[in-house]
Amino acid sequence: MAEELNNDGMLDMFLYESGQLLEKLEGIILEKQDADCFDESDINEIFRIMHTIKGSSGIMMFENITKVTHRLEDVFFYLRESQPDNVPHLELVDKVLDVSDFVNGEMEKIKAGEKTDGDEGPLLKELDDFLAKLKGEIKDQGIPLPKQKKNDEPSQFYIAPVASENSRFFQIVIHYRNDTMMSNLRAYAATFALKEVAEDMLYTPEDIMTNESSADVILAEGFYIILQTKSSAEEVHELVDSTEAENIEITELSAEEYGQKLVEHGRVDAPPAASAKASEPAKEEKKAPAPVVPGDYVVKSKETGKGKTLAKNQPKKQSIISVNVEKMDALMDLIGEIVIAEAVVLQNPDLKVPGLELPNFQKAGAQLSKITTELQEIIMSLRMMPLTNAFQKMKRIVFDVSRKLGKDIEVQVVGENTEVDKNIIEHITDPLMHLVRNSVDHGIEENVEERTSRGKPAKGRITLEAKNEGGKVYISVKDDGKGLSKEKLYEKAYSVGLIGERPITDFTDKEIYSFITLPGFSTKEQVTEYSGRGVGMDVVVKNIQSIGGRLDIESTEGAGSEMTLVIPLTLAIINGIVVQIGSSSFVLETASVKTFMRITSDSIITEPDGEEYIVLRDECYPFVRLNEKYNLKGAGTNVEDGIIVVLEHESRQICILIDKLVQEQEIVVKPIPSYIKRVKGVSGCTQLGDGSIALILDIASLVDNKERRI
Amino acid sequence: MKILMAEDDFASRKFMDNYLSQYGECDVTVDGEEAVDAFMMALEDNEPYDLICLDVMMPVMDGYQVLKAIRDIETQRGISKKKRVKVIMTSALNEERNVKTAFELGCEAYSGKPIDVEKFDKLLKKLELI
User: Fold this and answer.
1) Which pLDDT does position A279 carry in this prediction?
2) 3-state DSSP call for residue A420?
3) Smallest CA–CA separation between A528 and chain B, in Å?
4) Could you say which residues of chain B have pLDDT below 50?
5) Can you tell me the distance from the alpha carbon of A605 to that of A636, in angstroms, rounded to the nearest whole number?
6) Long-range interactions of A99-105: CB distance < 8 A, separation 24+
7) A466: Cβ contacts below 8 Å, ≥ 6 apart
């Protein structure tokens, strides 16, 4: 959900509550879509949800929402009271979803500050027809119609303020010429002109009208105004300009800076510090802010220069605060810097005096490391959110698409409580949606016979699964449909000209499956509304790669396919091993290191074309000499002097030769600055304790690169 | 109809006066206490107001206090719920708790500022004032 909150508390509350109710409603519907009918508790629940939304939208005066929900409430009222049999369940499910969509649509408009102008007419008519049918059914079954229930129109209303564009904040400093007479009156003229456009304004000195000596202050120090307005800087300048003004500085402030200035001027109290007891259990969570009592908002007699008083200071106790994501990101960056700074301190070259023992320093250092690790964990956990919502959306998509395509599909969800960085959720929702659509559209067979003849149940099944493993999140979409056909994929890729003239035996299964992620590839002849245009899978892969993840495709023809998104749990800090090759330092991600070994030179096999392999325990690994690849000076070339590292990526291995192992540590990944041309095999860089820069090796591309050349 | 408006901010006052005048005679006060006085006077003269618009943040008495006072006076005088004056709060304070307090004190409606005139018209119709 887009988090563009209005600054209208009441409206936000309505949107939030209704949004929650609608989500719950969809949950019920999707769970029961395949049942024969809703059971009693569902009917009660849906009735209650409709009743609540009807009531609150009535108070908020969103009439079309009120009407639609009211009508659906009626439908469920009859269901509840008469409990007829033979309710056309699917039709009912459709109606409920239609209403839910309608209300959602209108709520989006409210969020965007538009008018709720959706036409409720057609939907009302559908619901009326349905209700009439239902009543007929009830009569046929000989159940007396319940008495028309009393209609309780809301008696109190709330009108949301008209949506207004965002205010801007300015600081204005006016210096008048030294010979200006009665500069306080000039200043007053300026404030008077600004009052036309000001939403809020504050100036120093404050007592310009009542205290004549303020004129001297203005001449000496200038006249300061801070202003909240919708006007532009130019318009403001025009308003305050006068012949006596020598110099007018107008600086635009951010909302935060503006608030800061207000605090400095003692206009509002500083916001209370967040509850210091972070460890306090969350039971206080729901604690309501102090209630408003009559008399709280008496405006103290106005002093000159003060506009109306802002709202009373916030309640002191608040255990949940919403935080701007940008601030969280900044905090995360800072913590990254702390980790680097820690390394700089603890591994400072000044400490590397032979024979120097610093037991106390070491102890203090260990303590520091512990705290920074905890800091990191906390900031990570702050940003974690469960995948529940994303998965619920996917369920809805399966429902919609399968209904449209006339396929019967059930959805199974595993591990929806897996928590993932919020950033990652935002990045994977679209790709995931695509994969799910693909599974429904391409994966599950069109006709049931095709399934039953293979011994599969008539009903298709799509499994959404999420799990957390080894610092990575695995999110998979699995279907039990027809699977990918290697031959078809190859033929298609060949005919579109994506792979040149290479024979099918040239490719591994994985490579063939990965054809579907190439731009311009789609084997489905018929393009449907949902998929088949061949744009999509490549976009999916691009999106996933942009957050450092990958897409794994597994498939068995006839039995189904599984698409797995593998995404790093955190984007910024990895566990790495620092190694030295020549005078350069490199970082290897710890998880991808398999073995360190010393070998003798007879384990090396050299192919006629110069390719080298290393045989370790009867296994043959490709060998890359990074010193040659990157022209590293001073690196050892004799394998017997150095250390061989076996690296693994997606069960493919590669060996490299290093001179020295330095240490294992937490590595803050920084992108390679844009002025350096993209280097193959390097995914980022970091700063080491001694201040030098180490490059982070991208094992995946090293492995790929090597294989391509075979 | 007879309208009373309490509003301390000049610009809002002018705007509301202009807007409400099309529906009837509009009396204006600039603080809460005056509003209660005006309400009492009208009752004494047997020409009670049909609609009262109250700002929340006002000098001397705030909108909540005025609303409470009005409802208390009405109860004291035995004016039935149906006959009591319609009160619309107008304020830029639109936290849920603000609105809730106003509802609990017995106002008919709460309108955020800046005022949505179109909806305000609808509201007046719902309240059967126009």
Assistant:
1) 39
2) strand
3) 44
4) none
5) 19
6) A99/A50, A99/A68, A99/A69, A99/A72, A99/A123, A99/A127, A100/A22, A100/A25, A100/A26, A100/A29, A102/A65, A102/A68, A103/A18, A103/A22, A103/A53, A103/A65, A103/A68, A103/A69, A104/A22
7) A387, A391, A414, A415, A416, A418, A420, A473, A474, A475, A476
Are the beta carbons of B94 and A9 separated by less than 8 Å?
A: yes
Of A10, A162, A302, the CB nearest to B114: A162
| Cβ contact, residue pair B64, A292, below 8 Å | yes
Give, as one character, the DSSP assignment of residue A350.
G
Best B53, B57, B60, B89 member to test A by mutation, with max A CBs in 10 Å, is: B57
Q: Where are the domains of chain A?
A: 9-140, 168-270, 336-382, 392-568, 573-709
Q: Supply the CATH classification number for the domain A9-140.
A: 1.20.120.160
In this prediction the pTM is 0.51
User: What is the predicted pLDDT for the residue at A148?
Assistant: 66
CATH of region A392-568, choose from 3.20.20.150, 3.30.565.10, 2.130.10.10, 2.40.50.140: 3.30.565.10
Q: Which pLDDT score, from 0 to 100, does residue A210 have?
A: 74
For the stretch A617-625, contacts whose Cβ atoms lie closer than 8 Å and that sit 24 or more positions apart, written own/partner, are A621/A646, A621/A653, A621/A654, A621/A655, A622/A653, A622/A654, A622/A655, A622/A706, A622/A707, A622/A710, A623/A654, A623/A655, A623/A656, A623/A657, A624/A654, A624/A655, A624/A656, A624/A702, A624/A706, A625/A656, A625/A657
**How far is B46 from chain A, CA to nearest CA, in Å?**
26
Q: Is the CB of residue A392 less than 8 Å from the CB of residue A26?
A: yes
A108/A6 Cα distance (integer angstroms): 12
Q: Mean pLDDT in each 10-residue stretch from start to end of chain A (710 residues)?
A: 50 84 86 79 87 87 88 86 80 88 88 81 88 82 70 76 70 81 79 76 76 78 81 79 77 73 57 40 45 72 43 46 78 84 83 83 90 83 81 84 83 84 79 85 82 84 84 85 83 76 78 77 53 61 77 85 82 80 87 86 82 84 84 79 84 86 81 74 79 83 62
Domain ranges for chain B, please list them: 2-124
Of B58, B109, B120, nearest to A299 by CB-CB distance is: B58
Please give the pLDDT value at position A93: 87
Determine the distance in angstroms separating the CA of A522 from the nearest CA of chain B, rounded to an integer.
52
Task: Check A294 against B93: CB less than 8 A apart.
Answer: no
Closest chain A residue to B128 measured between Cα atoms? A155
pLDDT, residue A307, reads: 42
Rounded to 5 degrees, what angle do the CA atoms A135, A141, A143 make?
Answer: 75
CATH of segment(s) A573-709: 2.40.50.180
What's the rounded Cα separation, in Å, for the pair A172 and A28? 56
Q: Which CATH class is domain B2-124?
A: alpha beta
Identity of the residue in B61, B64, B99 whose CB atom sits nearest the CB atom of A10 = B99
pLDDT at position A413 is 87
Residue with tokens 């956990």: A381
Residues of B in contact with A297 (CB under 8 A): 56-58, 62-64, 93
Question: Helices in B4-127 by DSSP H: which ranges?
Answer: 10-21, 32-44, 63-76, 96-105, 117-126
Q: Which CATH class is domain A168-270?
A: alpha beta
Query: CA-to-CA distance for A146 and A138, rounded, in angstroms?
Result: 10
Does the distance separating the beta carbons of B57 and A299 come in below 8 Å?
yes
How far from A549 is each of A471, A473, A508, A586, CA to CA, in Å? Answer: 12, 9, 21, 21
Give A164's contacts in chain B (Cβ within 8 Å): 114
How far is residue A30's CA from residue A35's CA, in Å, rounded to a whole number?
10
Burial of B17 (0-12, 13-18, 19+ CB in 10 A): middle
**Terminal-to-terminal C-alpha distance of chain B:** 9
